[in-house]
Amino acid sequence: MPRLLNIVVADDHPMFRTAVLHVLSSMLASAIEAASQSTLESVISSGRSIDLVLLDLMMPGAMGFSSLVRLRGERPELPLIVISSNDHSDTVKKAQQFGASGFVSKAAPQETLRDAVREVMEGGTWFCGASAAPDDADAALARRLAQLTPQQFRVLMLMSEGMLNKQIASALGSAENTVKIHATAVLSKLKCHSRTQAALLVKTLNLENDAGAFGAFKHQQLQAAAVS
């Protein structure tokens, strides 16, 4: 008898998660829902058996490809399919460059998602004809970013907004000295000589045709800080 697949559905829209759960109900799959980056991190670090992640690129706490890169660094062996409404060809290729096993547009028919899941779980990939040529710069960036801890990654994202250590500490609910230590570690791991240089690297994670991604990420972080 085939084994039940444990699939994480990471998306902040309840109706879309419900639609994905409906698609998975016709397969031998059990779904674990995650509505934010922090929830996804908790699921991944919980020790639960996970076979596949279906990932939206713009959840609260994430910016562009940041969630994809972080997950690839923490669990490089875990298959991951990006599901996004931003299906620009450059976005699809960038997802492939940063280690996704597949990409499915949110506008695609339900059967497309089923086919993609089956193909990826059999060890294949699913990019609907898009093919990304090897990009040494993207590969090098992914390796550097994979070295960052989750909190260092959050500090990096806010550094890229031009925020000072004091402002980052307030946003994340941390001590300013702790943020300073994280910032120093970030620059060292990324081999950057300045915050400006690090910010330029982060721009590579931005989604194509989505200039507001940085602002949205900052707003989400500040909202989270106000609630906590």
Rounded mean pLDDT score: 83
CATH class of the largest domain, named Alpha Beta
Q: Would you give the CATH topology of the largest domain?
A: Rossmann fold
Element-by-element helix/strand order = EHEHEHEHEHHHHHHH
The amount of helix comes to 40-55%
Global outline: globular
Question: What would you give as the CATH superfamily of the largest domain?
Answer: Response regulator
Q: Mind describing the biggest β-sheet?
A: 5 strands, parallel
The CATH architecture of the largest domain: 3-Layer(aba) Sandwich
Low-confidence stretches: 209-228
Radius of gyration: 18 Å
Strand content: 5-15%
Number of strands: 5
In short:
The chain has 228 residues and is of the alpha/beta class. The protein has eleven helices and five strands, in the order E-H-E-H-E-H-E-H-E-H-H-H-H-H-H-H. It has a five-stranded parallel β-sheet with strand order 2-1-3-4-5, with helices on both faces.
Secondary structure blueprint with pairings:
Layout: E1 5-10, H1 14-24, E2 29-34, H2 37-45, E3 52-55, H3 66-74, E4 80-84, H4 89-97, E5 102-105, H5 110-121, H6 136-145, H7 150-159, H8 165-172, H9 176-190, H10 195-202, H11 213-227
Parallel strand pairs: 1-2, 1-3, 3-4, 4-5
